[in-house]
Structure formats: C-alpha cells, structure tokens
TrEMBL record:
Keyword Isomerase attributed: yes
Name of the protein in its database record: Sugar phosphate isomerase/epimerase family protein
UniProt key word Isomerase: yes
Signal peptide per UniProt: none
Coiled coil: none
GO molecular function, one term: isomerase activity
Xylose isomerase-like TIM barrel domain location: 26-282
Gene3D superfamilies: Divalent-metal-dependent TIM barrel enzymes
Length: 286
C-alpha cells in the first residue's frame, strides 16, 4: 500500500528569516519535484504576500505556514503582555495564511521554544491552564479566517510542556475547539517516543501536518529513523496531508544557534533537499 501524500520542504533548509528574496528558492524547490513549500514566519512584516502569492502560482507550489515561537511569544507566561504579543503575532500569521490560501498555521504555539525547566506539578498546571485558555481564543480567531492550527510537540530540551503525542492529544482535548489539530515532527518523535507508529495513532485524525528529517536532523534515509513505523502509522490513519522536510542551515548563525546545529550536516543544502525527496518518494511507493 502506498500513501497518498504530497511533499514539501521548509525554506529554513537554506535561509532565515523568510523575506522577499526567499521566493527566489521556489523555482529550485519545484524543479526538485516538491509540491509544497513551508514558509516560516519569523517576522510577519518581512513577508510581502502579493509577491509570495505570485511566486507560488508561477511555480505551482502549495503554501504551508509555520510559526516561530521565540522568547517573547509565550502563552504560558505569567505576564499577560506576552500573551498579547502572541495573539498579535498569530493574527499576522493568520492573515498571511488566509491571503496565500494555506489551510492552517502550524508550530509549538503554546510556549516559547527553549522554555525547559523542572517545575512543580502545581506550576505546570497553572501554565497548562494558561495555554489552554489562550489557545481557545486562538482557535476562535483562526476560525474567523477559515483556518485551523496545527500544534506541535517538541523534545524535552526545547520545552517542558508538550513533549509527547499523548500530551498533545490531551492539550487538544482540553482546548476542545474544532480548529485545534496536530503536527508531528520526526526529529522530536525520535527523542521522545518509544514508537512512532503509536504516536501517530495517539493523535489519529487530528494529524494534519508531518515534518521529517533524520534523528540527527540530517537527510531522510541516512540515519536511525524507523521509516517502517512511520509508514504503518500514517497508513493506519489514512493520512493524506503533506510530508515536509524540515531542517536548518548552519550558515544562518542565529537560527543555527537556536536549534544547536554547530556544523554542516551535509556537503550542501541542495543535495539534502534532492536526496531527501528521492528517498521519501521511494519510501511511500514501496
């Protein structure tokens, strides 16, 4: 059985932040055989939606909008100013996604990436409840734009709130809004989950986006990832969304530092994109 999926790649593989010059990558991305491009929104003001829309149409690429949740974007923070900053940022992301015809905005939008501490159960409950309450508002706002949100688990070194698929499922259940959906990223699953197949089953039909790289963030097919487990899980839930390659370049120092990539993972990033897609196409066809 082969999966009926599309393939995407994040522009983070080559550059950061996404701005008007980044659309020059679209021609190459299409020539490699991708169906979609992941657009990470670090600074919404850098994104000229008209320009991006034209480039997407020209190269027949589908847009996927992903948020970037730095230290100022945090729905679990005790200071409501952080919540307001997050609402305003996500509003801008929703506007971009809506104008470009993307169906959702994805990412770990509950908390700031890198907020990983040992907290008491009482403190964790307070922060969990803040995330739920704020994300209920986010969902309603997304609904006004005709969009969903795809919440992502992160590994224990990047957040202390949502590390596993079961925690993500609980968060979505507690939010209890139709717009709240799931995004699973293989890099984080390889650290946190005993079974990728079971993690996929856990979120089930809530899964609307998948990101992959290898366990070491390298080219798919070159590491220790259990691709058979991925395939069984996606087939079981009849996943029909996009599978995107997400990794990073060490050449953008700020981003590389944030994701702890201290040296090149491949000889060149184009090779990563081409070889990764070749592997994924063979994998789904087997």
């Amino acid at each position: 059985m082969s999966l009926n999926v599309k393939f995407g790649v994040s522009t983070w593989l080559w550059t950061s932040p996404f701005d008007s010059s980044t659309v020059s990558l679209f021609e190459k991305i299409k020539s490699f055989g991708y169906d979609a491009v992941e657009i990470p929104v670090e600074d919404p003001e850098l994104i000229n939606t008209e320009l991006v829309k034209e480039a997407l149409a020209e190269h027949s690429l589908k847009p996927i909008i992903c948020g970037a949740f730095g230290p100022t974007r945090d729905f679990t923070h005790e200071d409501p100013k952080f919540h307001q900053t997050s609402f305003e940022y996500l509003d801008a992301c929703f506007e971009i996604a809506s104008e470009l015809g993307a169906g959702f905005v994805g990412g770990p939008m509950y908390s700031a990436v890198g907020k990983a501490r040992l907290v008491s159960p009482e403190q964790r409950k307070v922060e969990w409840d803040r995330a739920v309450k704020n994300l209920q508002k986010v969902c309603k706002r997304a609904g006004e734009f005709g969009l969903e949100i795809a919440l992502e688990t992160l590994n224990r070194f990047e957040t202390d709130l949502i590390n596993t698929a079961s925690e993500l499922k609980q968060l979505i259940t507690d939010i209890n809004e139709p717009q709240a959906k799931a995004l699973l990223d293989g890099f984080h699953l390889s650290i946190e989950e005993p079974s990728i197949e079971n993690a996929i089953a856990e979120v089930g039909d809530k899964l609307i986006h998948v990101q992959v790289s290898e366990n070491y963030r390298g080219t798919p097919g070159t590491g220790q990832t259990n691709w058979a487990s991925w395939k069984r899980g996606l087939e079981k839930i009849n996943y029909q969304g996009t599978i995107s390659i997400e990794s990073f370049t060490p050449n953008v120092k700020e981003l590389a530092g944030a994701v702890c990539i201290w040296k090149p993972l491949v000889p060149n990033q184009d090779g990563f994109a081409k070889e990764g897609l070749d592997f994924l196409k063979k994998w789904v066809a087997e």
